[in-house]
Specification:
about 250 residues; about 15% helix; mainly beta; 5-stranded mixed beta barrel
Length: about 250
Amino acid sequence: MTDFLYPYPPLLAGTLVRRYKRFFAEIELATGELITAHCPNTGPMTGLYLPGHPVMVSRSTNPKRALAYTWEMVEVYDNGPTWVGVNTALPNRVVKQALLQKALPTLEDYHEVRSEVVYGLDGKSRVDFVLYPDATPNGTGDPRPVYIEVKSTTWVQGPLALFPDTVTTRGQKHLRELSALPPEKRAVMLYFINRGDCTAFSPGDRADPVYGDLLREAIAAGVEVLPCRFEVSPAGVRFQGLADLELRQPVG
């Protein structure tokens, strides 16, 4: 038995050659074979697009897939050798497992987890998860449903994880929608720190100052922030606890 929230399937080692057209990565496997893998990350990948660095890829046996390989992680050396997850489709799957196992602090007292629930100012958005609380016949516990939005972060400055690494109008919208929830609903912004070398989290004001301001306003409005640390390795993903939250605005 392991304590991995997500055990990876057998991965193949390689070296990143280049990323191109956003969705494609050219990788040389340890065998010397040159492959094209799907790059499941549409962002700028600040600090992660590092040709020549070790990477890990998964291989699908689905014959209908255009690309059999998926780029899963890259090794970086910001704070010592560290694997960083690049597959942005994975964090929500890991968080769902953590919620089902009631492994995340302050998110244990509920009986049901729903994904992709419609909500928002226009009624057209979908929040990543809603938790419905356990019955509280004795009046104990929080009776409110919990609305959770998940964001994966990989950008760092030393041991400080930052989000976002580029302007995100979508992320700004999510903060506004969480802030607008009525008091009878609990709002949580969960940051999935997709690397094990960070001990603190802060908004990425340098990349998107509007997002940073909105996050601080959201916290003042009652939105809870959970910066969750995850260790990523070729074997799997493991929860490490919460990072410290630093909200000081940058000088200059």
